[in-house]
Amino acid sequence: MTGCTFPALPELFDAADDAGANDGAPLDGPPRWSLTLRKPTDATGDGRFLVNGELVCDEACREVTLDYAGPTMVTLTAAAAAGDWYQGANAPCDGPARTCNVNVDGELVITGRFSEIDRNLVFVTSQTFAADFGTLANADARCATAATAAGITGGVWAAMLSTSTVDARDHISAVAGGAPQGWIRIDGKPFSDGLTGLADTYRVWHPVLFDEYGVARVDDFAWTGSGYTLRASPNNCMNWTDGSPNPGATVGRPDRGPGDFTYSGFGMACHVPTRLVCFMVNQTTPVVQPPSPGKRIWLSQPFVPGGGVAAADALCNSAKPAGVGPSRALLATTTRAAADLIAPEQLYVRHDGPAIGTGADIIAASRNERLLHTGIWLSAFVYVADRRYAWTGATGPLTAPGDDASTCQDWTSTAGQGVGGELHAINASFWRPSELRQDCSEHLPVYCIEE
Question: Are 48 and 133 in the same domain?
Fold first, then answer.
C-alpha cells in the first residue's frame, strides 16, 4: 500500500491525521494485514464505525486497529451521532458514501470525518417515486423520511418542487419561514448560498450529485415541475396527483449545473419512478466558496465556426476573468488533440473559487474514468443556464484529435454538423455527449483555458 491521499475531498483531512498510513509490511518483519479506523482531531461531529455490521468504534473511540490473518474483504459502515452527519473518508472509501467495501491487503488506514450539522444540507433521494404523491407537504415528508433513514436528524426539509400555483422557490421559503441560505451537499462542498443567487443568477458552485447515503447519482433525473428560475413550469402531472403513463412533468438532473439541474428540457411520464431534490431549511449559517489556486478555465462568449481555431483563441482572450494571462480555446482540431493544451499536473479552477480538477483529472473525466470536481458553466461574467452545449470537436476523449466533420472543417465552416459537449455535465458528456451533433452555424461557447 502507498500513503493515503485525498483527491476527492482535499479540504476534509490534515496530513497529520494520516501520518504513517498504509506503509506496507515492515522491512524486517512478517507481512501484516490491518485496518485502522481514525477520526480527525479537528472534527466537529462524531459517530460510529461498523465492520461487517459489528460495532468496532463508538462515539467515545478516536481510533481502532483491527488485525487480520491475511488479505480480507470487509464492509465498513459509518453512522453519525444525532445532530451530526458523515462527511466522507479517504481512499479507498473515497467520498461520502456511508458504506464502503474495503480490501485489507496490507496496513490500511481510513480516516472518516463526522461533522456537526451547522449548515443546510441538500441531497437527491436514493428512492424514486411516481408523480402521484399528492401534495408538496407529502413530498417534503418523503425528504424528511429519507434523511432520517440515513441518520441525518434535526432537519426541516422542503422538496424542490413547483405546482401550478406555487413556485419551488416560494415553497422552500415557506417551509423555512423566511429566506433560507447556506446549502452544502453531503460531502460538505458548497452548493449555493441563497435562493436569490441560486434562482436568479444561477450560482451553483458544485452540483447536488449525492443522495442521502453519499452515493453519487450520475445521469439521473428528479421531479421539479420548474424552469431555470425555480418558478413553475406548465408540466407537473396534474399537481403531482397523476401516476399514469401520461406525459408528463418537468424534471431536472441533480448531477448538473444551473439550468439543467432544475429544467432538463423535457418531461418525464408521470408513472416513471423518479427522484426528489431535498433542501434542509432550518439552518442560517451562510456558505462561501473559498478560492482555489490554479489556472483558470471558463466559458467564452458564443462562437460560430468560420474563422478557424485562431478566432476561438481570440474570443477567449477578448473576454476573460480578471487577472488571467494568455489563454487558448480548448478545442480539438484534425491535427491536434485538445489534451495537448493541458498540463497534467496543473490544477484548473473556476474564477468563482471551486477546482475543476488537475489536467490529468480533466482528461480522465473525458474518458469517463472519474468525474470533474464541478462543471465549467461559468463565463467571465455570468453563470450560464440557458445554453446546453460548448464546442469541443471531439471524436473521443481529450487525447484524441478531431476529424473534418466533428471540427466543422477545423472551425472554418458553418456547413455540416460538429461536436459540442454538455457544459453542465461533470462526466464525459462535458466533452463528448454520445453521438450528438450541433449545426456548425450554431453560436455556442467554447471552453477557455489559461496558459
Answer: no
Are both 334 and 240 inside the same structural domain? no
> Which of the residue ranges 253-257, 271-275, 404-408, 431-435 would you say has the lowest mean pLDDT?
431-435
Q: What is the DSSP letter of 233?
A: P
Q: How confident is the model at residue 14 (pLDDT cuts 50, 70, 90)?
A: very low
* Nearest Cα residue to 356 out of 337, 342, 340: 342
User: Which helix (H) or strand (E) is 198 found in, with range?
Assistant: helix 195-200
Burial of 326 (0-12, 13-18, 19+ CB in 10 A): exposed
Q: Return d(Cα 107, Cα 282) in angstroms, integer.
A: 42
**Domain tally, the chain:** 3
Determine the structural domain holding residue 271 and report its residue range: 120-280
Whole-Å CA distances, 52 to 42, 72, 77, 96:
27, 11, 8, 18
pLDDT at 30 over 80: no
Minimal CA–CA distance to 203: which of 430, 391, 381, 356?
381
User: Is residue 148 a part of any domain in this protein?
Assistant: yes
Q: Do 13 and 21 meet the contact criterion of CB atoms below 8 Å apart?
A: no
Residues 158 and 241 in one domain: yes
pTM of the model: 0.91
pLDDT band at 266 (very low <50, low <70, confident <90, very high): confident
Note the pLDDT tens digit of each residue in 162-190.
Answer: 999 999 999 999 999 998 999 999 999 99
Q: Which residues contact 239 (CB under 8 A, 6 or more apart)?
A: 163, 164
Together in a domain, 387 and 300: yes
Alpha-carbon gap, residue 206 to 212, rounded angstroms: 16
Does 72 have pLDDT greater than 50?
A: yes
User: How far is Cα 300 from Cα 381, in angstroms, rounded to an integer?
Assistant: 10
> Residue 249: which of 157, 124, 138, 164 has the closest Cα?
164
Work out the pLDDT band at 351, boundaries 50, 70, 90. Answer: very high
Looking at the DSSP assignment, which residues form a beta bridge with residue 211?
124
If you search the block for the grid coordinates 441531497, which residue do you land on? Answer: 123
Same domain, 134 and 272: yes
pLDDT of amino acid 290? 95
Q: How many CB atoms lie within 10 A of CB 142?
A: 17
What pLDDT is attached to residue 126? 98
Q: Which of 115, 149, 168 is the last residue of a domain?
A: 115
Please name which of 50, 34, 190, 222 lies closest in space to residue 122, comparing C-alpha atoms.
Answer: 190
